[in-house]
Amino acid sequence: MRLRFTKMHGLGNDFIVIDAISQRPNLSPETIRSLSDRRFGIGCDQVLVVDYPTNPEVDFRYRIFNADGSEVENCGNGARCFAKFVRERKLTGKSSISVETSTGIMVLKVNDSGEIRVDMGEPEFTPANIPFIADATASSYAIEVDNQCYNIGAASMGNPHAVLVVEDVETAPVLTLGPKIENHPAFPNRVNVGFMSVVSRTEVNLRVFERGVGETLACGTGACAAVACGIQQGILDSTVTVHLPGGDLTIHWEGPNHALFMTGPATSVFHGQVRI
Ligand SMILES: N[C@@H](CCC[C@H](N)C(=O)O)C(=O)O
User: Fold this and answer.
1) Among the options 44, 219, 224, 229, which is catalytic?
2) CATH of the domain at 34
């Protein structure tokens, strides 16, 4: 079939977005991998699929696939692109949109400026729910990689994240240590790995080695998890600007029993058709 798609990005974290309401493609892991391939396909970090909700009280269902073909629970930059996509394609006229993912319901609000504010729900720190193998919940954990000990924060934003505080993100071992922590046995479902340097209590730099992709120019859930871990460790305030290689996100979290909010842009690049 000829598949219609839109190429989008959130701060350079790029997506192929597919309307599975007006077309019903069979997206096997192999098809996802070939669409995502930057040389033999269209190229992207994630494929986003917009579908009918299973819950009638929600506007849409949104599924996320990493470039390696694995289906994942959540994607923050993808959520903002999803909101822009359903409005641009006139699938809804609402400025407050509810969407079902495999781990829950999110509410997205499109601001007058065009930026999108996403209610990302409450960060989860209980190790079993991340999932992460540890005896008890803590604000940091020691893990061993190649006989060296690293301190990490661990949180779930629907998907699993490990966060390391480093002096300087430019020189942090993102490409060498990232994949080793991604596949560390303490994370049974693998993990996204953030390297965060703290500029002040309201400003951080962040690079993320994403599970199933590699380093991306931005990771929305990674920014949420990094700030949540920083707040839990007492080193950050409740509103933080996160500088990622692709641009800035604003994260706001009042602490336990409150939802965390992420605000940032979403961009459409082009529309196309591809034979699958
Ligand atoms: N880029 C995303 C996260 C996408 C999923 C992630 N790689 C995972 O495997 O959990 C974001 O903006 O949050």
Assistant:
1) 219
2) 3.10.310.10
